[in-house]
Amino acid sequence: MVAYRGSGRRRSVIVLLIVTSLLLITLDVRGGGGVIGPVRDVARDALSPAQNAVEDLTRPVADWWDGTFSAGELARQNRRLRRDVGRLRGEVSAARAARRENARLRANQGMAFITGIPSVPAEVVAASPGNFEDTIAIDRGSNAGIAVGMPVVAGEGVVGRVSGVSRTRATIQLVTDPAAGIGVRFVTSNTFAVAQGRSGSDLLRVDFVAPDTPVAEGEMLVTSGLQNAAYPAGLPVASVASVDRARRNLDQTILARPMVDLARLQFVRVLIWTGTGSAG
Amino acid sequence: MIRGIRLALVLVAVVLLQTALWPNLRIGGVAPEIGLVVTVAVAFAAGPTAGAVFGFAAGLALDLFLSTPLGLSALAWSVTGYGVGVVQGAVLRAAWWFPVALTFVAGCIGGLVFCLVGAIVGQSQLWGFTALRTVVLAALYGAVLAPVVFPIVRFALHAEGPRPSGPLGGQGW
After folding, report:
1. Helix (H) or strand (E) holding A121
2. Cα radius of gyration (chain B)
3. Is the ipTM value over 0.95, yes or no?
């Protein structure tokens, strides 16, 4: 009898926990950000000092780990970069001429706002705590004028968008996140497409490209800047890594490598831009 | 009471380590679900109710730092904690490797529940071979950590619990 009561109590507890979990999930999924969002913000702000302390304390361990498990990747990256340096040197002179022409064209097409967007510098303080998302945390939040949806860039190009913000921290959804999609344009053919993150991969999949569109490896993709786009036009996003033109497919399978080395980000800039131009 | 305070401290430590340390110690792009490993250890040492409650609390705390829906980890981990507690209660005597194997299996089950429910509520990235690979790797990583985590949890529960007889602790040893 006692055992039965204990068993019944146990079942009541687990049923209660399951029901509570399902209610929270439903509340969050069905647009309950108005309730859940502030709770998340408070938790992130509250734990932020302790997280910083733990990160500072364990940085030597993390650096050692990174050096141990990334040695092969660093060697491959070094070879690739050496090859790229040789190629890029040859392209510099052509780029100078193209830059002059580009500036003239931008002025003609009214896209000069790209260079005038205010930005907030920030340091990356944490990687994603989960295995199923590509996010980073930065050390600036709403106190610095950052809001959800703002684009984030690094020296080489687009990093992602702000997906969550508390007073002192912000979460950035990287372009490689499986749930992220970004409107892009092929620089050479001027074709528009959508680049999406892929689970477990550091490459982007570029969709909606007609099979007869000429695409070459190494071609650069920039943000499309179409109406209601999440990013200003013309920001470098990725370069084409591979093209597969299988005949049975209605479009091409294109993979692109982000311009920014997202695995080793340290500093970024958040553009104070909300889709209709400068918000700052 | 003392046990509750100790478990609360373990919970805070779990959240701090999961958000500030383990993301930098990935293998193959995968970090261990240290909260789930601790949940398994709590359930193993204190039974299904404690496992379920701790799993819910730890999962909910971690959910606050994820972009997946709030309550998803809480659901997966509480169910896993409950299941481990029930299984452990049926084991009279276990070999030294049993907690390690149990952590691996529980990690797989917890990860699959997380992915399945997540996919049902629209998290499409949680469905597919890559997600399955991530779940298995995370479970494997967690199992490797089990011999370190179990004694710590046993220490946290020691104040009011029976003294375990096995190398990793737990009822029925």
Report:
1. strand A119-127
2. 15
3. no
The interface residues of chain B toward chain A in range 50-79, judged by CB-CB distance below 8 A, are 52-53, 56, 59-62, 64-72, 74-75, 78-79
CB atoms within 10 A of CB A211: 11
Q: Which residue from B22, B75, B128 is facing A21, i.e. has the nearest CB? A: B75
Q: Does A148 touch chain B (CB under 8 A)?
A: no
Show residues of chain A in contact with B60, CB under 8 Å.
Answer: 21, 24
Q: Are A129 and B62 in contact (CB under 8 A)?
A: yes
pLDDT exceeds cutoff 90 at A212? no
User: For residue B143, which amino acid is it?
Assistant: A
pLDDT digits (tens, 9 = 90+) for A118-142: 889 999 988 888 888 899 999 999 9
Q: Which helix (H) or strand (E) holds A183?
A: strand A181-186
Q: How many CA atoms lie within 13 A of A86 on its CB side?
A: 5
Intra-chain end-to-end CA distance of chain A, in Å: 69
**What residue in A sits closest to B123 (Cα-Cα)?**
A179
| Residue A4 pLDDT level (bands cut at 50, 70, 90) | low
Region A177-201 average pLDDT: 87
Structural fold of domain A119-280: Thrombin, subunit H (2.40.10)
pLDDT top residue among B55 and A72: B55
Q: Does B149 touch chain A (CB under 8 A)?
A: no
pLDDT classification of A100: cutoffs 50, 70, 90: low
Query: Which residue has 């299988």 as its token pair?
Result: A246
Question: HEC string of B108-173?
Answer: HHHHHHHHHHHHHCCCHHHCCHHHHHHHHHHHHHHHHHHHHHHHHHHHHHCCCCCCCCCCCCCCCC
Low-confidence ranges of chain B (pLDDT < 70): 1, 159-173
Handedness of CA B48, B52, B54, B55 (dihedral sign): positive
How do the domains of chain A map onto residue ranges? Answer: 2-26+36-68, 70-110, 119-280
Query: Which candidate, A215, A210, A217, A177, places its Cα nearest to that of A195?
Result: A177
- Please tell me the pTM assigned to this model: 0.78
Q: Specify the residue for token string 């039974």.
A: B47
Reading the block at residue A22, the tokens are: 């399902």
Cβ pair A127:B24 closer than 8 A = yes
Tokens coding B77: 């981990």
**Within a 13 Å sphere around the CA of B152, how many CA atoms are in the beta-carbon half?**
16
* Model confidence at A114: pLDDT above 70: no
Residue with tokens 């260079």: A115
Q: Which residues pair with A135 in a beta bridge?
A: A173
Q: Domains plus CATH for chain B?
A: 2-157 (1.10.1760)
